[in-house]
Amino acid sequence: MDKSEHHIIKEALMRDYLASERTMMSVDRTFLSYVRTSLTLFIAGISLLKFFNTFFIHIVGWALIPAAIITFLLGVNRTLGMANNINQRATEDGYKIDFPQSIVRQHLYSLTIFVKNTLREIYRLFLPSAHHVPKNQT
């Protein structure tokens, strides 16, 4: 194999590697869009509940909160499914995956912990009885 053939093979491998990186970044970008949409729905629902007193607005506000949760879960499900699909196809085509298979799952796990803690704090904000009061301070 001469230098020109070696250069062509190296160039093709680099192109495939960069294409896989672009694909994984697009999966991450799509997931972040789901997160942004779900947070917007959640904040809109809380805002409607907090600032308006009409019955219809309260129904819309309470409907937006589960919609936000469903949107987030849908985004997690689709992101993990797409990442697994990409990794499976790469393995079937004989490519060695040089990044951890759980690269998206690690971010999702961190984000899930963040969202859980944030929701817990919002819950405590809206429900004063949810605050923990030690027995000796009553």
Structure description:
With 138 residues, this protein is mainly α. It has one domain. Helices cover 80% and strands 0% of the residues. The chain is elongated and about 75 Å long.
In brief, what are we looking at here?
By secondary structure, this protein is mainly alpha-helical.
Q: How are the elements arranged and paired?
A:
Elements: H1 3-51, H2 55-92, H3 103-126
Helix pairs in contact: 1-2
Pfam families: DUF202
Domain DUF202: 27-81
GO cellular component, one term: endomembrane system
Entry keywords:
mainly alpha, DUF202 domain-containing protein, elongated, 138 residues, transmembrane, 80% helix, membrane
User: What's the overall geometry?
Assistant: elongated
What is the average per-residue confidence, as pLDDT, rounded to a whole number? Answer: 77
Order of helices and strands: HHH
Number of helices: 3
Rounded Rg: 23 Å
Quaternary state, please?
Answer: single chain
What distance separates the N and C termini?
83 Å
Give the strand content.
under 5%
Task: Compute the number of structural domains.
Answer: 1
DSSP summary, beta strand count: 0
Classification by helices and strands:
mainly alpha
| Low-pLDDT residue spans | none
Largest sheet: none
Percent of residues in helical segments?
over 70%
